[in-house]
Design goal:
Elements lengths: L1 E5 L20 E2 L2 E2 H12 L4 E6 L3 H9 L7 E5 L5 H8 L9 E5 L2 E3 L3 H9 L7 E7 L7 E5 L5 E6 L8 E9 L2 H7 L8 H9 L3 E5 L4 E3 L3 H10 L13
Length: about 240
Amino acid sequence: MRALLLAAGFGTRLRPLTDHIPKCLVSIHGRPLLDYWLDALFNDARMERVLINTHYLHELVEYFISSSPWRERIDLVYEPDLLGTGGTILANSDWFGDGNFLVAHADNLTDAKLSELIGAHQSAPSDNLLTMLAFRTQTPRSCGILELDGESRVLAFHEKVMDPPGNLANGAVYVVSQQVIESIAALGKSVVDLSTEVIPGLLPRITAFEHRGFFMDIGSPEALEQARRTFPDFRTAGPDGVI
C-alpha cells in the first residue's frame, strides 16, 4: 500500500513559530511531526512508498527528507498553488496505482496504530469506500463530528457546527478506495476539499474506526504546548534498526 502525507500548509495559527519553519517540522520531544508520521507509516503500517506534498517553505521539508532513513521510499511533489486534500489526491492519482491508499495530515499528532486502521478497512462491508480514524474531542465545535449507526457506518458529518451531536470527531486519517478518486474527478475542478466536498457525497459508504488513545491537531500554540506535556516520549527504530 502507498500513502499520501499532506505537509503543504502555512500553519498561520502557530505564528511566529511558523514564520521560519513549516508546521510539519514543528517538534515534539525533539522530533518533528513529520518524523512521527514517517515512523508510523513505514514501521507500523509497512507502506511501500510515501508521497509528501509541499508548498510553504518546501526547501526545508526537502532538506529534512534528504537525511531521513526512509528517503529512498519517499517521493516529494511541490504544489505551486495549494490544491486541497481532494485536489492533491486527484493530481497524483496515477502514483497510487490500482489499490487502496492511506491519506494523513502531517500537522496532526497521534499514537494510533495505522495498521489497525488498515485492518478495519479491509474487514469493512464490501461497499465501503473509505475508512476514517475517529477520536473523542473536548472541543467538538472545532471539529468535524460524526454520527454512526450500530455497525460504525458514518450516517452524518457535521463540520464545525455550533451545536454538534456528540464528540466523536473525524481525525482526517483515511484509508481510501480507488472509487473515491472517481468521485473527486466528477466535481470537474482541480482544487477540492475532501472533508466538505467529497465525504458528504460518500455517505453512508464510510466506516469510522475509533482510536481511544492520543490524537491532537497541532494547530495553535496552546495545542503545541499541551502535546509537549502529554504526548508519550517514545522512540522507535528506522528501517536499518537505528533510532
